[in-house]
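Hey, can you fold this one?
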Amino acid sequence: MSTLLIRHADLLVTMDDERRRIPDGGLYAEDGVIRRVGPTAELPDTADEVIEARGRVVIPGLVNTHHHLYQTLTRAVPAAQNADLFHWLKTHYLIWAGLTPEAVYVSAKVGLAEMMLTGCTTSSDHLYMFPNGCRLEDEIQAADELGIRFHAARGSMSLGESRGGLPPDSVVEEEDAILRDSRRVIEAYHQSEPYAMVRVVLAPCSPFSVTPDLMRESAALARSYGVHLHTHLAETRDEETFCLQQFGRRPVEYAEDLGWMGEDVWHAHAVHVNRQEIGLFARTGTGVCHCPSSNMRLASGIAPVKAYLQAGVNVGLGVDGSASNDSCHLLNEARQALLLQRVSGDPAGLTAEEALWIATRGGARNLGRDDIGSLAPGMACDVAAYRLDALEFAGALHDPLAALVFCGPVKADWVIVNGRVRVYDGHFVDFDPAPLIARHNAIARALVNGEKP
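Sure. Predicted structure:
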């Protein structure tokens, strides 16, 4: 049995059901599972590994519930810097058609590493393009090597331009092949047990890139295996217009018709919704992933996060793809979420604690996890710690939790996943990212220039 003791944190933020904040706090874990949490004086004195946390605020590891990791290869592409979603997608589809298995693996490792350095210990990723032999396991390999907890979403696109969809026919798949591969990856990689490091999600891309049949079949397949469902929904007005013209339904009504509501479903964005649709999410236990920076970058609008929370809808947080955010900083997304809910005039539209809650507990619930997201006995030992003597926090130590959200985004000092220290003093303990970054940049240049990586 391996044991870990974290002690003397200036503040330990539990995000447990009581939302306890413990000065001079710490925790004790055995084999990657937290057994005790409390003031340092009430914890064991020794462990196999002891971490002195003075001068730091300690929180549960952050949980990212929407991403497209391969998009780290196409950040800030000039032709798409000032585009709305549909034009942005049309610009990128033909670039992404050049993805290779190596490109997917390298981009996933880069994006996940960037997120880990911000305090993220669990991430989902939505991979919906599979050209040139790319497979979901190209991402799973990257996550395994980094030691991050990973929910791999097997995305799909089947509705090409010739059939009224948005993507070109060259980048869509046949639906029978999608369902066969979905079954394959669930059986090969999904771990249903507590504290699982890898789980599989089924995730047809969007109303404008898959058929109703694929949505229904994917939902039935996922539920037969007990895995979760994820898709983009109600992101833009263009999507709303498409759904009304093609299906005679608003996006949320359309999703409900297809059986895409329930505690095993979470939708990315959900920006353009009305009061009745918010009530539907609440009644059915359907989750929402808020992606504030991406929604701002693409001028998609502001999701009604406060209204969701007031109605009892579970809200998680996502960085979204790095070509529509250009960053993988989940703590910054918490800050953006707070600011966006205030910009319309409510100075208490979202509190710092609420922003951090959706970045931890909200994300865990979206993913169907009751074993991550808080620092409490029986939870996985997933932890992020931040130095309070950082320049960005100067003058903000009256409330260390609020400092994390209100002040300029910082990187984590330590990151622990499943009881394993992965980042220490702001650096990976067994991984030098420099060669990976160099290869990533070479692949990115070739991809955007239409060359072979």
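The longest helix spans residues 101-116. Let me know if you want another pass with a different chain boundary.
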